[in-house]
Amino acid sequence: MNLSRRNLLGAAGAALALPVLAQQGQPIRIGSTLALTGPLSATALTHKLVGEIYVEQLNKRGGLLGRPVQWIVKDDQSKADLARTLYEQLVTSDKVDLLMGPYATGAILSAMGVAQRYNKVLVHHTFGIPSQAKYDMQFPAWSLGPDPQNTVSNSLFDMLAQSRKPPKTIAIVTSKFPSIHFMSLGGREVAKKRGLKEVLFLEWEFGNRDFGPIAARVKDANPDMVWIGDIGLEGNMLLDAMKKIDYTPPIHFHMYPAPGPMLKSPEGDKALSVTIFEEHPPFTNSGTAAEFVKVFNERAAAAGLPDTHVEVQAAASYSAWQILEAGVRGANSLDDKKIAEFLRKNKIDTIQGRLRFDGPGNYGDDLMKIKQVQGGAWKVVWPTSFAAPGASLQMR
User: Fold this and answer.
1) What digits encode the pLDDT tens for the residues 234-244?
2) pTM of the model
3) 354 plus 374 within the same structural domain
4) pLDDT tens-digit profile of 200-210?
5) Which end of the chain, C or N, has fewer beta carbons within 10 A?
6) Contact, 115 vs 151, CB < 8 A?
7) Do the domain assignments include residue 318?
């Protein structure tokens, strides 16, 4: 069943399945944007479905502060400037009570500026440059830690150093999309410090669709490993271009791929990426996580999403809603300053773990893990304490 336009854009602003007991007073209105169209839509649709599920579950539990919750989401078309305009509308014209962040770093930064101007709390789920999160009432569910360009990269290279054939040469090809570029430059420096020889460094503009020349340059460089700074479907397009010239990278790491399309592509086999949650123990050991996985699987299949699994994007999105709910309940108020004060002082339990917001830029620990496509599924392989049962790094 394919996503209809009505399913995609229609019911986002409506109150979802409110039980009788929750219908007391006016709804609490939570406003946000998502990239429902444009180059980021393949992943943003996952965030839309997660938000719908969470609000529905929340209202079944009685809502917030004895009132039902209504989510108003607008399409920012994958454009950061439009996200800024729409968040202005949400605050000034729609007069929402609370904000939830959009998808992707550029849009989140735009929303953050609006939140700061109006002293609103902004919980967000996929912001990739912690040093730019300078507003003191923003709270990240993307648990990169405050120094991800070093910590995430070192985690990847720690794992590869223990493999049966550690890479000695590396090609780094990356989008100029802000958070991707930031992480790729960090990976480039970490690789140099660890003694890997860089045989190629290339950049492309976000929105690029012609990956043939890049694939040819990678093949000519013949690296042991390719770091691919991709977002959404870019990684798939690059792998497809490599296939056309009969080239398969020995090791390929992807920054933020669209997980479903990468998983289903034959060229995506043994792809590496980062994650905070996958559909296997120990992540699914908690009842909340297991129930969310079950519901998301069913709803994603019914909606015709290309990936029906709960992974890094869905988990970050669900965690963001858990953070916002915890803040409102902890403060027992819709006052943004009280919510922010509670979140800064308390650790919040989420499906990815317990998060804290008392570090630089309100970031806590780096909880990122490394996953790999194995046997038609994404499986965590590092750290080994979080690895899928029986899983370990596979090399070509």
Assistant:
1) 999 999 999 99
2) 0.87
3) no
4) 999 999 989 99
5) N
6) no
7) yes
